[in-house]
Amino acid sequence: MIDKQEHRRRQRLQEEILALEEILAQYQRNLLTLDLQIAQHGQLNVPVSLVNQRKVTTDQIEAKKRELQDKKQELAAAPPPPVPEAPPAEPEEEQADEPEMILIPAGEFLMGSDPRKDKDAQDNEQDQHPLYLPDYTIAKTPVTNAQYAEFIRDAGIVAPPKHWQDDEPPLDKLEHPVVNVNWHDAVAYCDWLGDSTGKPYRLPSEAEWEKAARGTDGRIYPWGNRWYRGWCNTSEGGPGDTTPVGTYPRGSPYGLWDMAGNVWEWCSSLNKKYPYDAGDGREDLEASGGRVVRGGSWAGLRDDARSAVRNWNLPVGRDDYCGFRVVVSPILF
User: Fold this and answer.
1) Please, is 54 exposed, middle or buried when counting C-beta atoms within 10 Å of its C-beta (0-12, 13-18, 19+)?
2) CA distance 296 to 262
3) Which pLDDT belongs to residue 43?
4) Topology of domain 101-328, per CATH?
5) Can you list the alpha helix ranges (DSSP code H) found in the chain?
6) How far, in Å, CA of 329 to CA of 24, rounded?
7) HEC readout, 11-40
8) Phi and psi of 48, rounded to 5°?
9) Is residue 150 a contact partner of residue 290, using CB atoms and an 8 Å limit?
10) Per-residue pLDDT averaged across 32-43, rounded?
11) How far, in Å, are 179, 252, 264, 298 from residue 320 at the CA level?
12) Of 30-39, 91-100, 165-174, which one has max mean pLDDT?
């Protein structure tokens, strides 16, 4: 262990070396000035005083170099300073389990239904109209019980779904979509996930949801225009309950799962008439009114599994057939 006396000695040597280096630099600047003055006189007319001054300065430089070298050798021979103990590492902050996200490229798509092509088209799905959306990413699946449980444990700001026991989801349903969550719960989850990851997570607008479900060509179902009862979880062919996300791999044109059936999904949008206009107040998160849900569910019929179907619920509503998924994109409204 180095004692205090040796520590002070090292400090003194370091200070002396810095001072010598500063003096040496000044002598070298003086020498440069003398050389410039001598050059101005020419070799034959140099005053003797300048020649003598240059010799003195050169001798001073050499003397200071030797003195500096001696001090550096003395410092090198001194006992090394103690290595300070590293402070204890701070525990790494756990980051939230982020969902797998799918890019939806910018461009137009057909929103709504054309009754000439879809016999089940409802009035609130009309008129079908083209709509441009910029790039955004959307979760491949609805938020699962396992993902939502992390939010419940970490945030502690909303009550867990009513069917959970001891604030934990059923162990056999960890990969099922979370249900019995209202619109406010879903928004709170997005805010928490955004704070945890530094990314602007939010609920999809109904336009973003619909484009992700059906692509750009106006198809009726995520996979095309023909119904297949075994391709999604609805009352016609499902088990009468939610299923693990991805059980039905017939995804949308972009590869998203469960865009038809399993659970209705909350959107950010207020329930307003078409044409869709993000700037008309329907995307105001502070406004009152019913919020759109999309996609159909395990308890519904095939008509509700159409990509253009528009349903709604009060923001405080919690049902065992309604969940949500998330998007990341610039705020559009």
Assistant:
1) middle
2) 7
3) 66
4) paralog of FGE (formylglycine-generating enzyme) (3.90.1580)
5) 4-41, 48-77, 145-155, 183-197, 206-214
6) 61
7) HHHHHHHHHHHHHHHHHHHHHHHHHHHHHH
8) -60, -35
9) no
10) 77
11) 5, 24, 10, 10
12) 165-174
- For 294, phi then psi, to 5°, come to -135, 155
Quick one: CA dihedral 229, 232, 238, 240, positive or negative? Answer: negative
Which two three-digit tokens encode residue 46?
A: 């140099």
What are the structure tokens assigned to 106, written together?
């910018």
Looking at the DSSP bridge assignments, the partners of residue 130 are 110
Whether the pLDDT of residue 95 is over 90: the answer is no
**The dihedral sign for the CA sequence 99, 100, 103, 104:** negative
Q: Where are the domains of the chain?
A: 4-77, 101-328
Which of 325, 225, 273 lies closest to 126 in space, CA to CA?
A: 273
Each residue's pLDDT tens digit, 175-187: 999 999 999 999 9
Q: Return d(Cα 162, Cα 320) in angstroms, integer.
A: 9
Half-sphere exposure of 148 (CA within 13 A, CB side): 32
- For 102-149, write each residue's pLDDT tens digit: 999 999 999 999 999 999 999 999 999 999 999 999 999 999 999 999
C-alpha atoms less than 13 angstroms from C-alpha of 233 in its C-beta half-sphere: 23
For the four alpha carbons of 312, 202, 233 and 306, in that order, the dihedral sign comes to positive
What's the rounded Cα separation, in Å, for the pair 160 and 156? 9
Alpha-carbon distances of 332 from 132, 202, 208, 278, rounded to whole Å: 12, 11, 11, 7
Amino acid at 236: E
Compute how many other C-beta atoms are within 10 angstroms of the C-beta atom of residue 220: 23
Give backbone dihedrals phi and psi of 203, rounded to 5 degrees, phi first: -75, 150
